[in-house]
Amino acid sequence: MWPMGWEALGQWGDDVARIEPLAGGVANDVWSVRVNGHLAVGRLGTRSDADLAWETALLQHLDREGLTAPVPIPTTDGRLFADGLVVMTYLDGGPPETQADWHRVAGTLRKLHRLTQGWPQRPGWRSSTDLLHAETGTKIDLGAMPPESVARCRAAWARLAGRQTCVVHGDPNPGNIRMTASQVGLIDSDEAHVDVPDLDLVLPDNAAGLDDGALDIAGQASAAWEAAVCWDDEYAVRRLAEVRAV
Name one Pfam family in it (predicted). Predict the structure, then answer.
């Protein structure tokens, strides 16, 4: 009945169906699904149970605190994920289009940051400032980069040292934002982890209103992060070119 891996969907009950694939990044198989007559989103991947426990607990916390984000739908026996599959509520809306929209996005990201101060790090992840000393963390392996490139990235991250950290969304691009007239929803928390909040606030037309110095620090650190995460495809090389030489 189900393709490989998706048989886990049966653990959400008898009235379940996969509908159509959704754009959901490269790491996961993401589909719209129907659960007990309601539209939902199913995401099947290879993340560890510890990772999924961190993410689903975060989503529940944000929902309780009034931030619009997908909410995990439990299996019939109350688990928030099963065999790498998470089923979440579907969020309606479209991407931000105007500067006013992006101002609202900035406000929502700042609310996320306020609600998660002191949150524990995602299992296996490192923050940008952790990588001043660590070599690896989930998708990042600084040992795979040329030493000069690592020096440039670390110089950019060093400017963030000593700042308070919180959960950052990690990828607030238009495709991960669902806006309506009344709410701004953040979807796809695949890149969410604990880091310095300004990394989330490098937005079009400086919609977060960072001053010149803060915007420069955040922009350099963000470009270095994306270069390291994606190393060494064309995008990573392009992002690294934005990081000033030491």
Answer: APH
pLDDT of 114-173, one tens digit each? 999 999 999 999 999 999 999 999 889 999 999 999 999 999 999 999 999 999 999 999
Q: Would you call 217 helix, strand, or coil by DSSP?
A: helix
Same domain, 83 and 13: yes
Sign of the CA dihedral 164, 191, 91, 105?
positive
**75-103 burial, b for 16+ CB within 10 Å, e for fewer?**
beeeebbbebbbbbbbbebeebeeeebbe
Burial of 223: CB neighbours in 10 Å, binned 0-12, 13-18, 19+: buried
Residue 71 burial by Cβ neighbours in a 10 Å radius (0-12, 13-18, 19+): middle
Q: Write the Ramachandran bin of 80: left for phi over 0, alpha for psi from -120 to 50, otherwise beta.
A: alpha
CATH number at residue 237: 3.90.1200.10
Domain of residue 177 covers 99-241
pTM strictly above 0.90: yes
148 and 224 co-located in one domain: yes
Closest CA relative to residue 96, chosen from 190, 173, 209: 173
- Asked if residues 186 and 108 have their Cβ atoms less than 8 Å apart, the reply is yes
Contacts of 133 (CB under 8 A, 6+ apart): none
Cβ-count burial 153-162 (b if 16+ within 10 Å, e if not)? bbbbbebbee
* Residues 114 and 43 grouped into a single domain: no
Return phi, psi of residue 216, to 5°. -65, -45
Query: What SS3 state is found at 186?
Result: strand
